[in-house]
Amino acid sequence: MLVTRHVLAASSPYAAPYYIVRGTNPGPVMMITSGVHGNETASMAAAQKLADDCIAGRYVIHRGTLIIVPRVNQQAYAREIRGKPDLNRTFPRRKSGKAKHPLAAAVFRLARAHQPDWWLDLHEANGLSQLSPRVLGQTLITNPGSSSVAICRKIIERMNRSIPVHKHHFNLKRHELPGSARTAAARLLSAKSVTVETCWSLKRAVRIRYQTEIVHHFLREAGMS
């Protein structure tokens, strides 16, 4: 396994480090982004932990290529804000279309260069989806008709078996969000793209653990680890 560090949008105000983890055997490509919204810190910590664990050899990718961008929106993170404009509304909407923000454009150029089979976008949200269908906390979200649905259901079942408090259980949601990384990846790259949402009301350490466990489940399902 080989891990290399790179910089996205280098020599620009949006520069952000990212990592490419190459397994010893050929296989699928998975892209993991986090910090598209700068105040969703547990998801960023989980993504950085995965990169650090790969670098240290504590977690091994046996097959394929893993691309991790742990903190996409550095400027929003520094200000502890979601970000203005909302970066997750600025990704390309059509094959002939362009991203509406230089940082979204840089992220999507990276994706086009590697053509990921999977794209996980790690986020956090208000509210528990077990208590209200209108909120996104504790959900996996994918586009309608996505081939990732069956695997999402399997991972949710595994996660929920390990979570003793029922209101903290995960749910599956299916909807398109034009301009989001998830929908752009599904529409334009034909990737199995999933948004992972943990709930802000849970302890930060718990949210990091849930994000980490979900990513590990997806990597195993993809046959990469």
From TrEMBL:
Its cofactor is Zn(2+). It holds the Pfam family AstE_AspA_cat. Transmembrane segments: none annotated. Residues 26-135 form the Succinylglutamate desuccinylase/Aspartoacylase catalytic domain. InterPro entries: AstE_AspA_cat, N-alpha-Ac-DABA_deacetylase. Gene3D superfamilies: Zn peptidases. Keywords: Hydrolase, Metal-binding, Zinc. This is Succinylglutamate desuccinylase/Aspartoacylase catalytic domain-containing protein.
